[in-house]
């Protein structure tokens, strides 16, 4: 039997009290989050999440012209879900020089996202140096670098405090931090998937809080679609929501769909329905997060497009050369063009908005701009006078 409540038709009437809270702008409880995950009424859950996303962002969906740089894949860890890591002497291990890192950046980019392995021999000064080199070469680009897991590793490896690490990185040019390394905040899962050696929830949250206290905003991720339970996903969101109440610096939440790694923790990817539900429940649980990202690299573009009507208001960016998901089973391209993202957002019935790493608006794409982009006639405003660096991206974007 169908039940209609203020514009939403429910097949699962147990969701109506949750909708009443959402409509009234009240916070939903962890039990509500669990109820949503356990329900099959995906359409109603999506409509509720879209209501929240529209309240926060209207019909805007954000994207950024960016690149992901992974300076090294040498890593002391051996997480079961990760195919990216290598030992130093493995075939396929890489270690970029500062010049190689700089060669990935073009003047049109407003964000550079940097995440790497926990390299045992790279000194903290080396990391500091390439951040400073990027800042010197590209004074206006926003540098989003180092997960809390990497910062924790620098602290342990080089016996530095979190405060000193953050202060030195900020002095070198850091603007914000990515949300990786959180995985699922659960000791049980950490043990089974061999990431107990990485910053666990308290430490991960402490590092983000320290960044927020310095005016450095950050993101938060959640790796799902492996052995975690719905209750563990909800607990992960609860911890993030409470941290956001305390420190307030999270910009976006990004659910990361597990890409099948060599160890095949599960044999199939999460279904598109599961992806959409996860996006929608995050939007409903994380009432104090400004944005939820549909990360097209891991969701695939089709699902990411649908997610824009299930609570997501961001698709990340052009990315240029993604390597972490593509070390595993990612079926998406390694990067895409502005045109492709504008089309993805427009096809979802939303307004594309180009942003920088801090969500400052670079450009709202009105109808005429969308038409120009799709006709290959759009010319972006040159943001700076920096001359292009030598070298080319490692792989071509898909247009
Ligand atoms: O920390 C590793 C995860 C993360 C796999 O903050 C995997 O804007 C799925 O954090 N399947 C890196 N995930 C990516 C990341 C990220 C991406 C986009 C935007 C932002 C942001 C952050 O990827 C790692 C780890 O949690 N990961 N292996 C895998 N097989």
Quaternary assembly: single chain
Identify the strand order in the major beta sheet: 11-3-12-13
What's the number of structural domains? 2
- Termini separation comes to 45 Å
Q: How confident is the prediction overall: mean pLDDT?
A: 94
Which architecture of the largest domain does the CATH hierarchy give at level 2? Alpha-Beta Barrel
Helix content range: 25-40%
CATH fold call of the largest domain: TIM Barrel
* Radius of gyration from the alpha-carbon trace, in angstroms: 20 Å
CATH superfamily of the largest domain: Aldolase class I
Write a structural description.
There is one protein chain. The protein has 399 residues and is α/β, with parallel strands linked by helices. It has 2 domains: 3-57; 60-391, Aldolase class I (TIM Barrel). Helix content is 40%, strand content 14%. It has a 4-stranded mixed β-sheet with strand order 11-3-12-13, with helices on one face. A 4-stranded parallel β-sheet has the order 4-5-6-7. It is globular. The model is unreliable at 384-399 (pLDDT under 50). Bound molecules: ligand V47. The site of ligand V47 has 24 residues, from strand 8, strand 9 and helix 14.
């Amino acid at each position: 039997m169908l039940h209609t409540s203020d514009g939403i038709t429910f097949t699962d009437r147990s969701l109506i009290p949750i909708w009443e809270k959402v409509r009234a702008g009240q916070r939903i409880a962890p039990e509500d989050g669990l109820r949503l995950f356990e329900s099959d009424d995906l359409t109603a859950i999506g409509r509720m999440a879209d209501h929240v996303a529209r309240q926060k962002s209207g019909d805007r969906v954000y994207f950024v012209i960016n690149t992901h740089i992974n300076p090294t894949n040498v890593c002391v860890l051996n997480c079961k879900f990760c195919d990216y890591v290598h030992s130093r002497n493995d075939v396929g291990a890489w270690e970029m020089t500062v010049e190689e890192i700089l060669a990935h950046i073009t003047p049109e980019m407003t964000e550079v996202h940097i995440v790497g392995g926990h390299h045992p021999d790279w000194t903290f000064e080396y990391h500091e140096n390439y951040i400073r080199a990027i800042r010197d070469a590209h004074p206006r680009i926003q540098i989003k670098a180092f997960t809390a897991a990497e910062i924790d590793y620098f602290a342990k490896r080089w016996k530095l405090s979190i405060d000193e690490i953050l202060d030195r990185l900020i002095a070198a040019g850091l603007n914000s931090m990515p949300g990786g390394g959180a995985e699922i905040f659960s000791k049980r899962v950490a043990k089974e998937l061999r990431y107990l050696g990485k910053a666990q929830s308290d430490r991960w949250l402490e590092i983000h809080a320290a960044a927020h206290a310095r005016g450095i905003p950050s993101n938060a991720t959640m790796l799902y679609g492996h052995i975690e339970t719905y209750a563990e996903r909800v607990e992960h969101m609860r911890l993030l929501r409470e941290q956001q109440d305390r420190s307030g610096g999270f910009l976006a939440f990004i659910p990361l769909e597990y890409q099948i790694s060599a160890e095949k923790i599960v044999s199939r990817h999460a279904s598109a329905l599961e992806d959409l539900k996860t996006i929608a429940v995050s939007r409903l649980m994380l009432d104090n997060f400004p944005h939820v990202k549909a990360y097209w690299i891991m969701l695939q573009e089709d699902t990411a497009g649908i997610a824009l009507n299930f609570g997501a208001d961001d698709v990340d960016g052009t990315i240029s050369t993604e390597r972490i998901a593509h070390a595993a089973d990612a079926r998406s391209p390694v990067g895409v063009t502005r045109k492709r993202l504008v089309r993805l957002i427009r096809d979802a019935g939303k307004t594309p908005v180009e942003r920088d790493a801090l969500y400052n608006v670079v450009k709202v794409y009105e109808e005429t701009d969308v038409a120009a982009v799709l006709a290959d006639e759009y010319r972006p405003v040159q943001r700076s006078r920096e001359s292009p660096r030598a070298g080319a991206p490692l792989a071509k974007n898909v247009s």
